Amino acid sequence: MPRIAATALSQFSAAVADTMAATGSLEDTTHGNLEARFGYVLVGGGAILLC
Question: What angle do CA 30, 46, 27 make, to 5 degrees?
Answer without folding.
Answer: 20
